[in-house]
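Lecture 7 notes. Example A: sequence first, then its structure tokens.
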Amino acid sequence: MSDTPVHSPRVALKTPLSHIHHMAFRCRDAEQTRWFWEDVMGFPLSFCLAFDTEPGTGRPMKYMHLFFEMGAGNFIAFFDVPEHADEALFAPKWNLDLHIAFEVDTLDELKAWQKRLFKHGRPALGPVDHEFIESIYMYDPNGIGVEITVKSDRHDNIIAHEKAQAREALAAWTAETRALKEKNHGEKLDERGIYFFPPKTPA
């Protein structure tokens, strides 16, 4: 992506955006979530915000928004919404649908994390060798896939090679899968215009 500012009549926008302030997920229970992300994973609880109304609509809805500090001004955050918390929301997600990956510096550190997680009752699969990284995998209490990974010795060379051919690989994949996606998704496949927000609050 270009670093050239994109100009509007009022403000200059620089792309790409610099970092993630927070990513937010649903949780079954705020305290259970705090146990995992603070006591097990080591991210300190930064702040908890309790509300009585839905943002943007003002409709009555009790919920808590809690944040854990990941460093460098980044947070992982959760919504605890007891009145709209179907248990199906917290079934373990397929890792190809959703997971978060954190990085450590050495393979020994990765294995030490695996031992720590086991001692806390959260067994982690792996290490799995992906050639450019090695990873262990587990789930948080809300069914979110959590990965801890370490770069392999070949990481930078593999990434450089793949980066050089990324657009060609994407074009080939798009051509190969287009017909199936048109069958599965129809006009949604090319939806790049207006998106109507906010979605309806769950019943």
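Example B, a different protein, same format:
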Amino acid sequence: MICHTQPAAGAFEYADHLGGSTGILVNHYRGQNAQRNSGDSTRPCGMRAASPASPRASRPLARFEPDPRGEERQLGTQGYCMGGPIAFRTAAAVPDRVGGVASFHGGGLVTDMPNSPHLQAAKTKAQFLIAIAANDDTRSPNEKTVLKETFAKVNLPAEIEVYAGAAHGWCPPDSQVYNEPQAEKAWSRLLALYGKALA
């Protein structure tokens, strides 16, 4: 496990390997070179949250306890690419603990399966940020509409936006399609989400 503070965001990262089949796991997404070249140790790597919808998903939350005030803190979970649907399922697995969920260029958020990640929204109490790559939207133009309708139906706050000119994978600085202006926008929207949802 790796845990270090992110003073600029007033938070910390929790990292663990993704080999297990259950648990709320957050893993560094960005490469070491990108972190070293970023020049700002307070900026986190992209984080990927992993958990199937399982009762055991709450087990790693014990790592964040006890709160000195005796309170259970609200947590945020975010995913990049295939981490997006996993972040959705994490929130569904522990709805009383996860207050904010973010997906960046998420893949497979909407499927025709009964356990589709977008249907997990009905099981959460979280606020959502869904940042969609422009080329993903071109391939699946109806997905954003389905997401908006799903969140509206269960009356959950959700910011859903297609990031113009941003290709799938635009957030990590070591990505070949890194788009700095849109990555900075996504980061600022994430801080705004957590500022509201985890307050």
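Note on Example B: Residues 2-197 form a domain with the Rossmann fold fold (CATH 3.40.50). The radius of gyration is 16 Å.
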